[in-house]
Amino acid sequence: MFSDARFRAMGSDVHLVVHGSQALVDLAVTRLAALEAAWSRFRPDSEISRLNAGAGRWLEVSAPTALLLQRAVEGWRLTGGAYDPLLLHALQAAGYDRSFEALDPALPAVPPARWWNRPLPPEIEVNGSAARIPAGAGFDPGGIGKGLAADLVTADLMAAGAVGVCVSVGGDVRVRGTAPGGTPWTIAVEHPLAAAPVTLVGLWDGALATSSVLRRVWQAGGRPRHHIIEPDTGVPARTTADLASVIAGDGWLAEVLTKPVLLRPADRRFDNVPSGCAALAVVADGTVAATASMSRFTGGALVPTVLRSVERTHPGGAR
Amino acid sequence: MNEPFDSSRWDPPYGRVPVSAAPPAFDRRPRRRPWRTAAAGAVAAVSGAAVAVAVVAVVAPTFADDGHDDDGVSIESHHGAEHDEAEHSVTRSAAPTPAQPSAQPTTGSHSS
Question: Least CA distance to A191: which residue of chain B?
């Protein structure tokens, strides 16, 4: 038997497919709610909000939050700084200072963040159940929180007896075990402006994360803004791609690896992608670039080199 | 179901990040610390051009430093054990297990 559920959590759409009983779905909903309560930067009583409010001081945190902080530092290191978890103040300065659903569609102009003086992620410290982020810094659980949540929830459900689990939290998909029917899981890489998937990916065990500057877009001072912040400037990045998808072993890792794919120059956008993993990027004119390793996950099928529907409908200055 | 992890696949061009090393460079321009710039300027105004040249000579290596040396020390001195464990876990989890996709997707990945 299998159970399928769609709901909202962590400010995102969640799609859960469980090869197992309905009770496992309830467990996943409960677990995601608990992680959101601990990690939401929009809840003043969350662990992340307390860490941000008490930046510079040691605070007790739960094991998942300690893991989140450790993974965030790893992500910064593995991406050479393209992924940076301490950009919260820059994100807030760009106007993203409340849950996306509550954002004013036309914010006034906001000053840029004081990016130059901010601490860097290695200064995040975790010691057992105590953690400290550097004074003056703000931790943004953002995408990595969704990816890690998918990792933790799928692990929980397998431990609770699921034969297989697939969970998507805002585009970060993690699969384990077997899909209903004993088959592997198939995930569609979707582009917001394309009617058909960019490609279909097959996975027995692993994760696929997609980040884009075409989602979570708002206006500030009459200018379009998005949530991908350039670490060196502290403002919404002028990315070299509109959409990046990465396949990796875990959701948190796939999520952080999308950032260098979006931010790096075109000829180096895949430099941070480990050879066992795979990635693709869609640029504004609809052209698609992918690592050679992508074919291992598509059953040998070639990823299209151009998305014609994007070419026709892309708004150009959408950023 | 999982393939044994092949560490040879976790090598250049990506490159393993040494535990004690700073992260690889990512287009990081030198991080000018504004207070240092201001300090250099103040000294120059008071002491004249000759002193300014000396100050620039002293400060310039700091500007040329992209900040990662300091950060590298920080990693090594404060996070060594943590990163030993962390890197192992990354290595362990780095390789997904591919499969033949079916015609019908289970779900979609459509950006966060």
Answer: B110
Which pLDDT tens digit goes with each residue over A64-118?
A: 999 999 999 999 999 988 999 998 887 777 666 656 566 566 655 555 554 446 6
Hey, is the C-beta of A182 within 8 angstroms of any chain B C-beta? no
Neighbours of A299 (CB within 10 A): 15
Report yes or no: A275 at the B interface, CB cutoff 8 Å.
yes
In angstroms, the CA A123 to CA A52 distance is 14
Given an 8 Å threshold on Cβ–Cβ distance, is A277 in contact with B1? no
Q: Do B71 and A120 touch (CB under 8 A)?
A: yes
Would the pLDDT of B112 be above 80?
no
Q: Would you kindly state where each structural domain of chain A is located, as residue ranges? A: 3-313
Q: Which CATH superfamily is domain A3-313 in?
A: ApbE-like domains (3.10.520.10)
The crossing angle, in degrees rounded to 10, of helices A251-263 and A63-78 is 30
Q: Which two tokens stand for residue B92?
A: 């362990």
Say what the pLDDT of residue A96 is: 62
Contact: B71, A166; criterion CB under 8 Å = no
* ipTM for the assembly: 0.79
- Beta bridge partners, A224, equal A219
